[in-house]
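---------- Forwarded message ----------

FYI, see the Sugar ABC transporter permease protein record below. Original note from H. follows.
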Amino acid sequence: MNVAVNVDAREDIPVWLAYGTPVFTVLAALAVSAIALVVLDVNPVAAYATMFVDTLFTEFGLRETLTKAVPLILTGLAVYLPLKAGLFNIGAEGQLVAGALAGTWVGLNVSLPGLALVPLMFVAAAVAGGIWAGIPAYLRARWDVNEIITSLLLTFVALAIQSYLLRGPMQGGTGNFPQSERFSEAATIPELFGGVHAGLLVAVCMVVVTYVLMTKTRLGFEITFVGSNDEAAQQAGMSKFYVYLLVFVVGGAFAAMGGISEIAGAQGRYRAGFEPGYGFTAIPIALLGRNSAFKVMLAGLFFAVLFVGGSSMEVAFGVPAALVEIIQALVILFLITAEFFKSYRVGIDVKRGPAETPAQPQRGDD
């Protein structure tokens, strides 16, 4: 018996596969994670009910989910926009920190009414995040330096600067904790509804802006064209240098606004470690929603549910907090697998060989 595996490139992607990939990816990740729950002697149905039902249908869970979704959506956009140009912004975490530091400095040192101070904090954060993201963008556009490495390394630089400032010039409060002074009422992002701060409105507006940019403007067409074939785009007169700089700088500004939203909206002061990996979680968010800015928003909401529901599940069942990270890793793994099956058709051929002829006994001489 001969078994042959045939891998052929697809000419057309089935509609159900193109649109169902995010759903299949999430379901597969949850199904495999259920194995870990069973090993821990936890009922997966009860655990997922706590994670999703209790989170989405209680006032506390809904409030916390929407609050967590703000930095996740904005950092997701920070990865999504460069991704459309064929680039990988792995440094959204550093851009988020850079923006949070700049916005915090303005909030603590500038005396203005809240109506002017909060927008100024967002502008300062966006400028700082854009500059921070512009460094790997310029290196890639000018000298073709790998943006994955440079943006990631700059994240560690931003975290080191954060540690220095919160233990030195920006340290405040009592004790030796790495944190700033509390924000004044004027520097605090106002409440939108039900305990959810107005940073959510900023996130939704940035989603709309990104959607319009990518689908309704010539610039969005150029970004997509450069991402699909940069050499053809240059021959058509498009500037790869300009596109690379633009998507990274705007993406860095998005991540930075997510940082100051979390600090001035949810935390009340700058604390070291306020960002539990938002910038890195933005990678699966952008991959899940990479077909549309609105899908990025939905993916951000999903991961916000994972963060909040994961904490509830940890308390209720004693499940390690690392389970949420396992689900994130599985989402990326299954996304990569799904992309392969979207590009290639896999078939298995089983062929039976000719029947073996039984050996005839040899007759000896009489």
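H. also flagged this: The chain has 13 helices and four strands.
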